[in-house]
Amino acid sequence: MRMTSEQVKAIQDSFAKVAPISEQAAEIFYGRLFEIALERGLGEHWTPDVAAAWTAAYTVLSEFMIGEAYDHRIAA
């Protein structure tokens, strides 16, 4: 699946609006994601260590994706 140029612009515009509160936005996003996609599913196996590991993994992934998106946009 490919994104349209309008979808890319919508993401970039909304990201720019969220950038000033990026830490708070990330906490909200990942908190909700963990509550829905992992914590409920893992139940008692969702431990503070597992939560920290997933947080680290998603942080690395999101930083990479953001870096790639902006590097490609600048190069274009």
Distance between the termini: 21 Å
**Low-confidence spans:** none
Shape: elongated
The biggest beta sheet reads: none
Number of domains: 1
Alpha carbon gyration radius: 15 Å
Q: Output the structural class.
A: mainly alpha
Q: Report the count of strand segments.
A: 0
**What share of residues are in beta strands?**
under 5%
The oligomeric state is single chain
| Helix segment tally | 3
Give the SSE order as H and E letters: HHH
Average per-residue pLDDT, rounded, comes to 83
Helix content: over 70%
What does this structure look like?
Helices cover 83% and strands 0% of the residues. With 76 residues, it is mainly alpha-helical. The chain has one domain. The mean pLDDT is 83.
Topology, element by element:
Layout: H1 5-18, H2 22-42, H3 48-75
In brief:
The chain is mainly alpha-helical and 76 residues long. The protein has helices at 5-18, 22-42, 48-75.
Key terms:
mainly alpha, 3 helices, 76 residues
